[in-house]
Amino acid sequence: MKVAFITGVTGQDGAYLSEFLLKKGYQVHGLKRRASMFNTDRIDHLYQDPHIENRNFILHYGDMTDSTNLIRLIQEIQPDEIYNLAAMSHVQVSFEIPEYTGNADGLGTLRILDAVRLLGLEKKTRIYQASTSELYGKVQEVPQSETTPFYPRSPYAVAKMYAYWITVNYREAYGMYACNGILFNHESPIRGETFVTRKITRAASRIALGLQDKIYLGNLDAKRDWGHAKDYVRMMWMILQAEEAEDWVIATGKTTPVREFVRMAFAEVGVELEFKGEGVEEKGYVKACTNPEFQIEIGKEVLAVDPKYFRPTEVDLLIGDATKANTKLGWIPEFDLQDLVKDMMKNDVKLMQKDQFLKEGGYNTFNYFE
Ligand code: NDP
Ligand code: GDR
User: Fold this and answer.
1) Catalytic residue list contains 134
2) Is the ipTM of this complex over 0.90?
3) How far apart, in whole angstroms, are the C-alpha atoms of residue 109 and residue 8?
4) Active site residue 201
5) Residue 191 exposed, middle or buried by CB count within 10 Å (0-12, 13-18, 19+)
6) Which residues does the UniProt record annotate as the domain NAD(P)-binding (predicted)?
7) Smaller CB count within 10 Å for the chain: N or C?
């Protein structure tokens, strides 16, 4: 039985990757931070009672900022594969907590690599590093591939740039099997609620159900290459099965503005939007509603721009060229953007119907405007 160690197991990708590896027959160990409440919603369906024998899904407390913890865990687990997914992953928040982001995302990666080296596991343990299209930052070239120069535009991206190069360095210096997956944005029904796609699908569902009046967003012109997380975790595994350790771009090759994602999400609940105005004055109004299930007033203002969501330095355009992964590893994504939006909206409408039921029963429900 192969043994995998996943940092960031409670996150979007950690949850999908755990499911994927368990289906492949792996024993999966996950690193989980101590929190004052359970923070395991995304992996609760995989949880196994610690009292049963021969478990194949095991959680360990730990933190990317704690070397001794990581060394001890890797020694105990003796993993065949490490997927280093843990990170403070929110670009805008990284401007507010830059030092912590550098520590967890940058030095955290070094701690993993060096633990493997110190323990003499260089020849046994393969390492996947969660690198990002944010490395490309300010546009140098489109589409972006493995050879495009980096120009990071946030403390998050700068920390991930250190992580990228320290991974390459340990591969070259110590002959370790360590790879970067340079993944472009990937989303899903379990995407964190403050990333733009999930913020939009939650809001569109709540607005259609009369639970919320409006969504406030930042830069509607930013363009992203959005894929489905399920396709991307499959590729993480494929990367570690390749004969040689290399770095890989994973993307759909198509780019879409945030505004268009908004339009597609509302269209899933039969709401046609009209955008008027420019820059911070831009607003979105209901032009038509074709779904009789949702009573939404024509002409209602449902979207406004709030400059608080603008970033000090923005990444305007991401579009990836995954030719290398397509041709050398045979990776072809199964979901396109329309499938992704459908999947996310289906899930959020269901979730918000639950909220609606609670509200009708006199209970409070919460919607954070982050
Ligand atoms: P999430 O934000 O959903 O998950 C991040 C995970 O990291 C969570 O499990 C979180 O724990 C954990 N974590 C954060 N800080 C620490 C720490 N100090 N110690 C231990 N664990 C920590 O991210 P995704 O699943 O979307 O992304 C996975 C990785 O891929 C990240 O490294 C991200 O930067 C990178 N990436 C993501 C892309 C995307 O589009 N999703 C694209 C390219 C790269 P907790 O649940 O306790 O907060
Ligand atoms: P990103 O994702 O920064 O690309 O990082 P995010 O969804 O946060 O932003 C995408 C684009 O949308 C614009 N935007 C808004 N973003 C947020 N979060 N909230 C808003 O209200 C809003 N309005 C407009 C942003 O300015 C940006 O241009 C994600 C993370 O998963 C990283 O960890 C990962 O490395 C990269 O994707 C690839």
Assistant:
1) yes
2) yes
3) 12
4) no
5) buried
6) 5-344
7) N
